[in-house]
Amino acid sequence: MRFLGNILWMICGGFISAVLWFVVGCLYCITLIGIPIGVQCFKIAGLTLNPFGQEIKNEGGPVSFLLNVWWFFFGGMELALTNFIIGVLLCITIIGIPFGKQFFKLAALSLTPFGTEVQRVHFA
Question: What is the pTM of this model?
């Protein structure tokens, strides 16, 4: 079921979100100082391609907090707004609600991506 959900996710806007994360990561990797931020963007782009069956846990410290403050103003707000708008549009229909919920999860992650850990959820 996760596989089918992830395939439909790509069609319903997941590919667009992953491309946006990838582009922002490339822009940050232009500078030497921005490479850690770019690498995190690439990790989240991978998550964006495969969101079903994964959960996000926040385990940040003071360095993550400072990076999240920087990120909020230089990339996070735009990505969060994009994911939120796509999520609202998908929630208009009953079929799109699961996809909209995933976009809301990604919108929250877009605001504070540093200090987060992505874990695969195993169902019994």
Answer: 0.80
